Write a sequence for this structure.
């Protein structure tokens, strides 16, 4: 995704943003979200992230940061829960994700799905 911020004349406040190359799926870092909220061009709820452009671009949050099982994408509490979950639920399954040999991973981003653009 390409995002360009525009600032008001003679100020350092963001007046609006333009979004191009809007992918259907996108990973947003917590730092990116916090900065957008502080500058006023992102609204963030438990389930959605909206970039205030014209028209607004709305994403549904599929997964937040945390530990997840590589087999079933179940959210796990921590690495101890991850080891226990993989051993008890997926003991004999063959792992298809060679980048996470433990069978679980730690995501440090919000995995989001873009909804249809809404009229602004």
């Amino acid at each position: 995704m390409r995002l360009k911020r525009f600032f008001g004349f003679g100020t350092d406040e963001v007046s609006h943003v333009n979004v191009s190359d809007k992918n259907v799926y996108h990973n947003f870092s917590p730092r990116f979200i916090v900065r957008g909220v502080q500058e006023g061009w992102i609204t963030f709820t438990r389930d959605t992230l909206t970039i205030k452009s014209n028209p607004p671009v709305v994403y549904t949050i599929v997964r937040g940061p945390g530990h997840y099982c590589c087999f079933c994408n179940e959210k796990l509490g921590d690495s101890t829960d991850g080891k226990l979950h993989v051993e008890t639920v997926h003991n004999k399954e063959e792992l298809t994700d060679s980048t996470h040999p433990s069978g679980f991973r730690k995501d440090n981003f919000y995995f989001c799905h873009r909804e249809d653009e809404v009229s602004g």
